[in-house]
Design brief:
- The chain is an all-alpha fold and about 80 residues long.
- It has one domain (about 5-70).
- Helix content is about 75%, strand content about 0%.
- It has three helices and no strands.
- It is flat, with a radius of gyration of 21 Å.
Length: about 80
């Protein structure tokens, strides 16, 4: 029981590293998507289209949370218990 601080430090390190890798991967994917958009279309103006589609997909994924938020107090965290 005395090693809570050691465990917390390990968890913190793992979370920091995983979020860092995720961020680096997102930046790399966004850059590659722009290059691929230009290569596939042959037009420099199309470079932002893959990123815009990806961003709109992420925003659309969060929309149900807006509608479910008011229902939270009605149902509670475990179905009304």
């Amino acid at each position: 029981m005395n090693d809570h601080s050691r465990i917390a430090r390990k968890i913190t390190i793992v979370l920091f590293l995983s979020q860092s890798l995720r961020s680096a991967g997102f930046i790399a994917a966004f850059t590659v998507n722009a290059i691929v958009g230009v290569e596939l279309s042959g037009q420099k103006a199309m470079a932002g289209v893959p990123g815009a589609i990806d961003h709109s997909h992420m925003v659309a994924g969060g929309r149900p949370a807006v509608f479910m938020n008011p229902a939270g107090p009605l149902f509670g965290p475990v179905g009304g218990s």
